[in-house]
Amino acid sequence: MLDWRGVKVATEHARYRRVRCQGIALSLLYLFFASLVAFCTYELSRIANTPVFMGLNFEAFTTNQFHVPINALLQASTAFPLSTKLKPNATLSLSDLLFKKCGLGDETCATAFVPRSNQIWQWVAKAFALIPNFDQPRFQDAAQTVVISHINNLSGWNKAMVQFSIPGHNVAMTCFIRRVRLFAPESPASSAVVDTLAFCSQRPFDPNWVCENEVGLDVATYAIQVSQGKIQYIGAVRRGDVYYRPGYAATCLGGPISPMQLEPVPINTEYEGGVVQVMAPWDIVGACNCATLNKATGRGWLLQQKGLMTMLWTCDSLLLQSALVLWCLTVYLVWLQFAFLRHSAICSAPVFLSKNVIGPVILLLTFYGNHSLQTLSTFMHQNPSYTYASYYQIIGPALVASIVGIMTGTLIQIWFNPRLVTQTWLLLVASVVNWLLVFCVEAFVVAPQSNAVPRTCQLATTINCLAYDALPRLHLLSPLLSGGVVLLAIGYIYRSSRQAAHKHTVQVPETNSILSYFNIQDFASVTTSIECCCDTDEAGAVAVDAGLLLIKSMLQVSDRHLTRTCNIPYTCVYRLLASTRLRRLWSQSVGSILVVHVGQGAILPRASYKLLDELAAEKVATGYLS
Known about the structure:
37% of the residues lie in helices and 23% in strands. By secondary structure, it is of the alpha+beta class. The chain crosses the membrane at residues 21-39, 318-340, 352-371, 391-412, 424-446, 476-494.
């Protein structure tokens, strides 16, 4: 509508529809984000830097897949007559197959290790002759020639596999080496010997064999020891006693030193240089499948097993106290918004946060420690636990997204300081967009795109060392995308401000009391736009949103007075006190505060000192000054 001066202003209905809810809506959004920050920080601080039992973890061929990390793939095949007499070699051991490590893609190293691998597997083939009541006696016949096909990933904690076959025979023997603890049942566990054993079972001959060894749970599994050039048959167990039984002590029978107890050796695994450390007793024997093995990418060698995991997540960038301070500050700003700026288009939160370092410091610390959060989220995504809260994989993304959401409007306001950003609706939209964008990137892009690949160990206590290959590529994706949204919003504000200035949609009279109080000619020097901050008062004059006083750290606390924002906490405490007596005592203890007078909806050139009791007795301000 046009007022009697010919100035276009918002109608009362439009103001309530378009303006009144903007400041409150953005402040409530900030409160939601701050609450998420506090909750997520609290939850993460509970598991940070302390061992957490994750419970049962099941790595299967079809779900929760574990791809055996491959440094250099060793694949070889050789024929071995069982009548061959092997020369004693005190340096040969199955542990050589377990601990051999080559560099990434070092095929020369893998090729050089083939002769020694052949020798060790030949000793295992000779050990079949030591097994009484063997279910495949043809492998004990010295007249037979066996074909030894074997594979190794050579990452330093290896999954060496072999298939022994006899031409024309439809049954083969497959073996898998594993590290175990051995001790007699009557002996204390402290007397256990840790060594590497080959666990062998009969299986239908597979002409296309690569690494497969899965058999039925009732199939006999034979434990063979090759150590310092000596072979020994330990005994036999049901496959079901050493497979799908994490942490279970199996009893070997039928060997010359039987019975013997076998226990899995807990494996310490580090991710991303020790950001996440996992200790778990897994199945003594796992099952492997290489149907999808891609030699070019090193992916597809799948290991199926169960384990009881304990996780240690190290993180030094979580500041629970800072998160609580941010939450308390946001609660205070929401109260301030409802108490004094309920009719204002201006949101107090980005203005206040742009004038202190709490928000920017938390944002910088979040992005600094985001690598630790990404590692945790990726680990949780790839290792879901059946007995532990699965939502921890989205706690990190929610924390980062919420901090970015809070700081989106704050950064935009910092950019335009000391001018006040009055396009509150744009701050709200940009904050929501950035929250959704960062959360989706962190939860649904970074974690699923990451593959565990071998890397150099950083900790002396770990033997299996992995890294997530997508983290270096995607580590800065969230800051770049969210920064792009902030820049787009800043560009839009510049564009809309220029358009509003050229169209002269709203013109505020030079006699406006806020202009006089600021000692300026127009609002272009202190705001990005005055378009949504104007209304007509009861006399038909143009009134300006009192939220603009935040530029000078002032606030209208009643229909008759303004005061500095530093005095508002005293008012907050005053209103929270339950009894009149307590309020009077608080008012007297605080003393009088400096106020600027307001009369007939305009700022007066007069100031005085008032007690909190006097201010509380006054009416609530309408929110507009002429």
